[in-house]
Specification:
By secondary structure, the chain is mainly α. The protein has two domains: 14-177, UbiA prenyltransferase (Tetracycline Repressor, domain 2, Orthogonal Bundle); 178-305. Helices cover 84% and strands 0% of the residues. It contains 16 helices and no strands. It has helices at residues 2-17, 22-28, 31-48, 55-79, 81-86, 94-97, 102-124, 126-150, 154-163, 165-174, 179-202, 204-209, 215-218, 220-244, 250-272, 275-304. Helix 4 packs parallel to helix 8, helix 14 (220-244) runs antiparallel to helix 15 and helix 15 (250-272) runs antiparallel to helix 16 (275-304). The N and C termini lie far apart (64 Å). The relative contact order is 0.11. The mean pLDDT is 95. The structure holds protoporphyrin IX containing FE and farnesyl diphosphate. Protoporphyrin IX containing FE (HEM) is lined by residues 32-33, 36-37, 40, 89, 143, 155, 158-159, 162-163, 188, 192, 195-196, 199, 287, 290. This is Protoheme IX farnesyltransferase. Its EC number is 2.5.1.141. The chain crosses the membrane at residues 33-53, 59-79, 105-123, 129-147, 154-177, 183-202, 223-244, 250-270, 282-303.
Amino acid sequence: MARSITVHSGSFRAWVMGEANWADYYQMTKPNVVMLLLLTALVGMCIASQGWLPWQPVVVGLVGIGLVSGAAAVLNHVVDRRIDEQMARTHHRPIPRGVIDAPRALGFAAILGLVGTALLWLLVNPLTAMLTVLGLVGYAGVYTLYLKRATPQNIVIGGLAGAIPPLLGWTAVTGQIDAEPLLLVMLIFTWTPPHFWALAIHRRNDYARVNVPMLPVTHGVEFTKTAVLLYTLLLFVVGLIPFLAGMNGWLYLLGSSALNLMFVYYAVRLKWGPESVWAMKTFRFSIVHLMLLFMVILVDHFVSG
Ligand code: HEM
Ligand SMILES: CC(C)=CCC/C(C)=C/CC/C(C)=C/COP(=O)(O)OP(=O)(O)O
């Protein structure tokens, strides 16, 4: 009897998982990206709260936003499976490697998406659930299915989906849309082009091979370097607005200006230095930059009251 249960549960597992293990499924959710998205959502929740954080919208909100974002990332793996197969950076992903097939990945995305949306709808509020699903549609549908292959401005427009989490955090706590979190959305929106184009310069041959019209492929490396520099300068200016609008204090002004100037410094080195060195340095710095920027906003919020 015990043996038969083992055999059956073993074959059920094989039916569900195929050749894959949990690490493969986990990898498809782009966990590092989702962690940073959740930090920005948490900051949205904190700036929406006076005093103690309300635990239910915060905990359930983060779990729900994390699950739906993970679902969006899995859908991106399904839609992009053919180009991922041909790009050096992505050919080892679970679908191109053949350990997870598209139907299983779709099933996984459906479970994550539905559970996440139900949690947000029932235990946080319908507005947050709808905006989070809008983020999923924006990333997996509008960006991945359409914009990515349609225009070199793909990531500028598609960047809105990745920029939305601070608003989701805010609506999870307040149940309404206000101007404050939109300033944080603007920060991420302006940060995304230099974040991605630095990497795209380094990986331009990958994108050219699969005919994806990323800016360095369509307009060349020099043009893209200039665009990266201009966006870091724009980010410096946008970074002043939360202080000028009275949302953040002096600590924010100092911290964000220092971080944004460092980003400009990387972009200048990239513009006039060898991209073989500075493209990936700038990309890696962009991630540390956004993480620290949102930590500064958080600390400033609690210190400046
Ligand atoms: C349309 C918008 C965006 C595009 C096109 C984009 C593109 C990329 C790409 C191509 C990578 C490399 C992944 C790899 O190494 O396989 C990456 C990495 C990363 N991105 Fe973005 N990104 C966007 C928005 C964001 C946003 C909004 C965040 C967070 C708030 C973010 C956080 C990260 C992090 C943390 C990594 C490192 C992942 C790792 O090391 O595993 N990205 N991004
Ligand atoms: C609910 C919500 C906020 C959803 C969206 C969140 C989300 C997962 C954003 C990710 C942004 C990102 C890593 C884009 C890269 O896609 P790519 O296809 O250009 O990169 P790739 O080639 O590495 O797959």
